[in-house]
Specification:
With about 160 residues, the chain is α+β, with helices and mostly antiparallel strands. The chain has five helices and five strands, in the order αβαββααββα. The chain has a single domain, classed as CBS-domain, CATH 3.10.580. It has a three-stranded mixed beta sheet. It has a two-stranded antiparallel sheet with strand order 4-5.
Length: about 160
């Protein structure tokens, strides 16, 4: 399975902000759309990521207030990216090794979407369910060996001891 497969199932909704967007507006966008990240775009190119982790750090630093800070003050400028042909296994390793929960998907200069750790988990479960169904179908259709008893047949009755 590839990242492009995950994006196809996930859909193409994509939310972005600019570096000058007020942090409060970005948080409201995240809450309104129930998303954990926003790609920060500057002049049509990704410039950073804003995730709930950066928002929580901003709240902690501001004593519970975001103040009038702009997204640029809190965005992560060092983020991972992947391409649509990245395999699910490679993506999982990248996310686990880097501790990244959200990865933008880029094809050249074009932002295609964002893959979350939840998207990856959902894809893994879907893939495992499919493999389990295929294995069960294979086992069910396994040819019987001649000379082997049919597993679904009842065993022969055991004779009762006779009394004298």
């Amino acid at each position: 399975m590839k990242v492009s497969d995950i994006l196809r199932v996930k859909g193409n909704a994509l939310y972005t902000v600019t570096p000058t967007t007020p942090l409060l507006h970005a948080v409201q966008t995240m809450a309104q759309h129930d998303i954990g990240s926003l790609v920060v775009m500057d002049q049509g190119r990704p410039a950073g990521m804003l995730t709930f982790a950066e928002v929580i750090a901003a709240l902690a630093d501001g004593g519970g207030s975001l103040g009038d800070a702009a997204v640029a003050a809190r965005m992560d400028r060092n983020y991972e990216i992947c391409g649509p042909d990245t395999t699910l296994d490679a993506l999982r390793r990248t996310m686990l090794d880097s501790g990244t929960r959200y990865i933008p998907v880029m094809q050249g200069d074009t932002l295609l979407g964002v893959i979350s750790f939840r998207d990856v988990a959902r894809a893994v479960v879907r893939e495992q369910d499919f493999e389990n169904q295929m294995l069960k179908a294979y086992i069910r259709d396994w040819p019987e060996d001649e000379g082997m008893p049919d597993a679904s047949a009842s065993p022969p009755p055991t004779p009762l001891p006779t009394q004298r």
